[in-house]
């Protein structure tokens, strides 16, 4: 688990939201996984690491990696998933957890 993923996981606990499944495989024929997922609501969170790294390349910032991410996220959307993507900086600034609280609250309001 990356540093950003650890922080988001801890924030979920602290904010007492329904704990997401981690490394959830959402596609039957591909091994694609979401960092965090609420499968019943088809909501996922991806924490994109390496976005501010100066010396290391994240696979998300290479052409091939970016293409792969596009394929993954488009397949998720095609299958009804809402995928929220955050940088580690956004997770650390509580942007991710605040938005996910609003989104998940909206899902439960329909129940």
TrEMBL record:
Species of provenance: Piscirickettsia litoralis
Record protein name field: DUF559 domain-containing protein
């Amino acid at each position: 688990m990356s540093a950003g993923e650890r922080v988001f996981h801890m924030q979920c606990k602290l904010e007492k939201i329904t704990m997401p499944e981690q490394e959830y495989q959402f596609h039957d024929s591909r091994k694609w996984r979401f960092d965090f997922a609420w499968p019943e609501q088809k909501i996922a969170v991806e924490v994109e690491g390496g976005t501010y790294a100066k010396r290391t390349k994240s696979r998300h910032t290479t052409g091939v990696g970016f293409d792969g991410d596009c394929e993954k996220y488009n397949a998720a959307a095609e299958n009804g998933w809402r995928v929220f993507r955050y940088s580690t900086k956004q997770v650390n600034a509580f942007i991710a957890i605040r938005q996910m609280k609003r989104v998940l609250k909206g899902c439960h309001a329909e129940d």
